[in-house]
């Protein structure tokens, strides 16, 4: 069984009758263990499967979401140390992942990019692999993630607030996440920074749903989660084009060859058009009706009064 199949996004073995301490330990164990599995794969075998780098970043984010959700029950010093390690892994894999996405976007057969410029991009990708390998060697040599995780799990108390029902606690936790999501929708469709912030809130909502699902109604997994996942995918396409445009602009500013500059300019025009199309696709899907449906579903999941949840559109 591959690591991707072994680590499902849903947390098994928890119910609404579990304690918050049980949920915290299970979630952290599952998420960080996945990071430890994908780090060597991303370091040593990314040439065989580019998704290893992508999955490493995804599980790093999922681990950080678990830390954020349960931080109240974790010792601050150990929490900071683990978060710092996870942020390091996420960051070193970022450049490689962005270049993988860029190559996937601008290297189809009809691409106007020359062989020399393609080779330049691939050299950058090879260089971006080195920090991942160095990070893996340091983490593996001293078993840093494994030791941090073990100490953190042992520090989760079974007394006090962490001994309460996971079901009751999950309702309140989900309410906080949905409120933050509701406040983030940008009013300006052309504000890419605001769209990026909204995308982050959507990710946070999705990852929280994955962690809290065992304690919430089945509607979460069956109908609400797929909508949030689709929303994230549409926002991701916008973000991928925006990142590509930013990167191409930087290369254009420092490109010495006029032939390459001409090709970069043409590619920028194509990426800009693709960005416009991605935005149109998003706003064609993100209608007032869809917003209302998602809002009402979140209200039901969190068992709140409708007046206490902010409107999605400001």
Write a compact overview of the structure shown.
With 314 residues, the protein is mainly α. The chain has two domains: 137 residues, A middle domain of Talin 1 (Up-down Bundle), CATH 1.20.1420; 139 residues, CHAD domain. It contains eleven helices and no strands.
What does this structure look like?
The protein has about 325 residues and is mainly α. It folds into two domains: about 140 residues, A middle domain of Talin 1, CATH 1.20.1420; about 140 residues, Alpha solenoid (CHAD domain), CATH 1.40.20. It contains eleven helices and no strands. Helix 3 crosses helix 8 and helix 8 runs antiparallel to helix 9. It is flat, with a radius of gyration of 21 Å.
**Largest sheet report:** none
Q: For this structure, what is the CATH class of the largest domain?
A: Mainly Alpha
Strand residue content: under 5%
Ends distance: 46 Å
- Mean pLDDT score: 87
Q: What is the N-to-C succession of helices and strands?
A: HHHHHHHHHHH
Shape: flat
CATH H level of the largest domain: which superfamily? CHAD domain
Whole-angstrom Rg: 21 Å
Which structural class is indicated by helix and strand composition?
Answer: mainly alpha
CATH architecture heading of the largest domain: Alpha solenoid
Per CATH, what is the topology of the largest domain?
A: CHAD domain
Give short descriptive properties of this protein.
single chain; 314 residues; mainly alpha; A middle domain of Talin 1; CHAD domain; 2 domains; 11 helices; 0% strand; flat; disordered C terminus
């Amino acid at each position: 069984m591959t690591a991707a199949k072994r680590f499902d996004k849903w947390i098994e073995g928890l119910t609404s009758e579990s304690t918050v301490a049980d949920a915290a330990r299970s979630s952290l164990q599952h998420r960080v263990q996945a990071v430890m599995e994908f780090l060597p794969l991303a370091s040593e075998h990314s040439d065989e499967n580019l998704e290893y780098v992508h999955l490493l970043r995804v599980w790093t984010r999922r681990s950080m979401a678990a830390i954020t959700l349960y931080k109240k029950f974790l010792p601050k010093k150990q929490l900071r140390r683990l978060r710092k390690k996870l942020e390091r892994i996420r960051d070193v894999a970022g450049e490689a992942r962005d270049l993988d996405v860029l190559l996937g976007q601008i290297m189809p057969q009809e691409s106007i990019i020359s062989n020399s410029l393609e080779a330049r991009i691939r050299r950058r990708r090879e260089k971006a692999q080195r920090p991942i390998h160095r990070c893996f060697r340091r983490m593996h040599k001293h078993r840093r993630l494994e030791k941090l995780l073990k100490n953190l799990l042992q520090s989760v108390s079974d007394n006090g607030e962490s001994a309460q029902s996971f079901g009751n606690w999950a309702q309140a936790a989900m309410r906080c996440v949905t409120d933050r999501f509701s406040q983030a929708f940008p009013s300006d469709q052309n504000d890419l920074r605001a769209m990026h912030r909204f995308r982050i809130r959507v990710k946070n909502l999705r990852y929280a749903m994955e962690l809290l699902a065992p304690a919430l109604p089945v509607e979460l997994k069956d109908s609400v989660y797929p909508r949030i996942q689709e929303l994230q995918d549409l926002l991701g396409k916008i973000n991928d084009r925006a990142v590509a445009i930013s990167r191409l602009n930087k290369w254009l500013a420092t490109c010495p060859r006029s032939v390459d500059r001409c090709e970069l300019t043409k590619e920028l025009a194509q990426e800009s058009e693709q960005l416009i199309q991605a935005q149109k696709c998003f706003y064609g899907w993100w209608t007032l009706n869809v917003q209302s449906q998602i809002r009402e579903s979140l209200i039901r999941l969190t068992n709140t009064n409708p007046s206490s949840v902010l409107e999605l559109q400001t």
